[in-house]
Design brief:
Shape: globular
Number of helices: 9
Strand order of the largest sheet: 2-1-7-6-5-4-3
Structural class: alpha+beta
Length: 237
């Protein structure tokens, strides 16, 4: 073989090696790129799963707090008469626990300490005044006179209320404040559904609403916070 032939053979060999080297590099780059993409694809769902699990944990903690509150309807009770109330109505639909499962007008109707109030709001005292659907239809704070409170009202006033629908409605709605207010926030003036304000003074077991003493407050129903009081509140006439 002459020198010229040997030179051409060597050149062809070098060219072949160069092509093989380029092919190997390209293959390595492709493998690395594919591996990187697969790693990112595999890791992304894991990150999403972690975030999802964190959100689920937070939701479970919130549900647990709400469940704890629902399991203890006596958690916010205040008033020197709460113990007597629990003794008089220890269980059943009218008890502290039982009232928490019903809307407020239904809950009051089951409470043997609130029979006169129930008659007044349900059309029994005056057939032209029935506030049951209204009271059950939104969130309220209700100052609920016990039966002894109505017994202290003179007979002439009761007779007037039984025939004067506007006056009875005014008196009843003067006992209702929009929104649920817990004992820790109840002190101060509050505008009633009737339009005038009531003033709550004192704290703890010594709360008063205008001139009425709170017998037992913070009684929960499905849609209201109830304060049993020992006097009937009277708006300005």
């Amino acid at each position: 073989m002459n020198a010229s032939a040997r030179t051409r053979t060597a050149a062809a060999g070098f060219a072949t090696l160069a092509l093989l080297a380029l092919g190997a590099c390209s293959s390595d780059d492709s493998d690395m790129s594919g591996s990187s993409e697969e790693t990112m694809t595999e890791e992304s769902p894991m990150a999403e799963d972690d975030m999802s699990e964190d959100m689920e944990d937070e939701d479970m903690e919130s549900d647990d707090m709400e469940s704890d509150m629902a399991m203890d309807p006596a958690a916010n009770l205040v008033g020197s008469g709460c113990e007597a109330y629990a003794e008089e109505v220890p269980d059943g639909a009218g008890s502290i626990e039982g009232m928490s499962t019903d809307p407020v007008a239904v809950a009051a109707s089951n409470n043997p300490m609130l029979t006169t109030l129930t008659a007044a709001v349900s059309g029994e005292l005056n057939p032209d005044v029935n506030l049951v659907d209204t009271l059950n239809g939104d969130e309220f704070t209700v100052f609920a006179p016990v039966d002894d409170a109505f017994e202290a009202v003179d007979a002439d006033t009761i007779d007037t209320l039984s025939t004067d629908a506007d006056l009875l409605t005014s008196v009843l709605t003067y006992h209702v404040v929009p929104g649920q207010i817990l004992p820790e926030d109840i002190a101060g003036e509050h505008e009633t559904v009737q339009g005038e304000t009531v003033e709550v003074t004192g704290s703890g077991d010594d709360l008063m609403v205008d001139d009425a003493n709170v017998v037992c407050g913070g009684v929960m129903t499905q849609n209201a916070t109830v304060y049993l009081i020992d006097s009937v509140l009277m708006p300005s006439m």
